[in-house]
Specification:
With about 190 residues, the protein is an alpha/beta fold. The protein has one domain: Dihydrofolate Reductase, subunit A (3-Layer(aba) Sandwich). Strands 5-4-3-6-1-7-10-9 form an 8-stranded mixed β-sheet. The radius of gyration is 16 Å and the shape is globular. InterPro entries: DHFR-like_dom_sf, Riboflavin_Biosynth_HTPR. It comes from Mumia zhuanghuii.
Amino acid sequence: MREMTYYIALTLDGFIAGPDDEVDFYPVSDDHVEHMFARFPEVLPTHIREAVGAGDAPNRAFDTVVMGRRTYDPALEAGITDPYAHLRTVVFSRTLGASPDPKVEVTAADPVARVRELKAEDSPYGIYLAGGGGLAGALLGEIDRMVVKKYPVVAGAGIPAFRTSFQPTQLALEEVSTFDNGCAVLTYARL
């Protein structure tokens, strides 16, 4: 059974983005970028991988990315129909309709059922849950691992990491790494 990992940036007050999907307020440092690229090169969108000269970097952890419509929209607005061309991309949307790219699966299917199908596939790689909070809330019971990049920023408002009903879900801390930008990367596994 494949694992699904929710890999997210998070403010101190629990937001993954600002109220209008802003993410440009997260501080970046070279040591943090180098560490994350060494561990998870596939989480960088294809056009960024190519811009930094790593377009052909092998995938280490994931071969599939799942995301909600709001996570997919910024790429579409920039004219990029497959932001993760190096991964199989599944976008959950009840409003998008037909996929703008033949390699991107857009589905209005039940996210839990579709993710269970993906997890049952035979692959040495896992599934990367890119966001957003609504999809993560719907998939909380299917998340096997979380990699939380906790930044020293208070947003005050925005999109929470999970939009769901009250569901206390305990995870086990596996690893902590800290960086010059004040970010702590926390890796958790489902108990």
